[in-house]
Amino acid sequence: MIQAALIGAGNRGFYAYGSYALRYPHEIQFIAVAEPDKEKRNKFAEAHGIPESRRFADWTELLEKEKLCEALLICSPDRDHYKPVMQAIEKGYSILLEKPMSPIPLETLEIAEAAEKHQTILTVCHVLRYAPFYQALKEIIDRKVIGDIVSVQWNENVGFYHQAHSFVRGNWRNSQESSSMILQKCCHDMDMLAWLIGTECKSVSSYGSLTYFKKENAPEGAALRCLDGCKVEKECPYSAAKWYLHDRDEWPANVITADSSLASRLKAIQEGPYGRCVYHCDNDVVDHQVVNLLFENEVTVSFTMTAFTKDICRHFKIMGTKGEIIGNDAKNELLINYFSGQTEMVHPATVKGGHMGSDTKIMADFIQRVNEKNHSSLTSARASAQSHMIAYAAEESRVTGKTISLEEYVANLKKEKAETV
């Protein structure tokens, strides 16, 4: 069994990774937590039996101590990753780091370099690589049953209510406070595409905007908050009452307050950010975006992220020289159409846990690597930094309207770093 500390006891830290220790207490035990929100901090600590002396209001208090345990999980907000991870590397912790590594490209490169320099076990939470569904897809591609990949169509269907919860009202609504949509939400997709295709991305172009979730689209009679006499609340698909006052044990109702009682949830939407009208928030991240990617060997990718879907899923078509793969991760289906006329439907094995079981699988993999002192990782800092660069370049293209060469983009970052040293 390994011992671990947690920085950031929010949804990912508490439910995705912390819950693993409650299900498999013989594998991992949390002995310390750092979380500024007192309710969240105490809720996590009480669930894991952490004493008062190991409950910290700030991550700096945890990391100023002598090394407490073998492993550290960093699940704090996007802009609070760089400093704690760099200090944790220096202290010799094995680290599980929530994505994105940092909203700042240079910081991401520095994290990767520091992890390699200190031979740190550092796993970045690009969890989809660990999902049985996507591992089965990777195995099919690597067997070349559809020949060589030529082109890919890939859709990230965020879902209308997920967009409203996380990217209009929630923690990732504003790029200046967190990060861009293409990095925060879709670095998973950029990472998956790089991993599945298996060659270097050469250039990126992108278009997208915040089109719908803004004040000029508010229906007549809409109030600033859903429960402040809004005349259209009953028929609004984004009503906070619909999403947060029912199914208290289900996401997203179970994450708007540490106490999931009806009274606490009602207070949260009367006073907190999740009760705001979706047309009257301080959001600035896009609600739809397309990215075109050119990989080595002339492989082309067309990627679409959109808020405007009923279901939350990824679906795709991967087209090769001998056949095509059509997939939908929500349905757990991979349809292989061979050009010979044969078809094959694959339903990969499933595992309990979030992100199609990948939250469970990444924790199991991380614990095994810590036990074995195995410094390699499927989502190492270096591999993850490379796919992060695609996301950064996509946002650069969206903002400037230019096609971005990945090689030039990274070279300019390294030049900028050298000039600041």
Automatic annotation (TrEMBL):
InterPro entries: Gfo/Idh/MocA-like_OxRdtase_C (IPR004104), Gfo/Idh/MocA-like_OxRdtase_N (IPR000683), Gfo/Idh/MocA_Oxidoreductases (IPR051450), NAD(P)-bd_dom_sf (IPR036291). Residues 138-406 form the Gfo/Idh/MocA-like oxidoreductase C-terminal domain. It comes from the Bacteria. Residues 3-125 form the Gfo/Idh/MocA-like oxidoreductase N-terminal domain. Pfam families: GFO_IDH_MocA, GFO_IDH_MocA_C. Signal peptide: none annotated. PANTHER family: BILIVERDIN REDUCTASE A (PTHR43377), BINDING ROSSMANN FOLD OXIDOREDUCTASE, PUTATIVE (AFU_ORTHOLOGUE AFUA_4G00560)-RELATED (PTHR43377:SF2). Belongs to the Gfo/Idh/MocA family. This is Gfo/Idh/MocA family oxidoreductase.
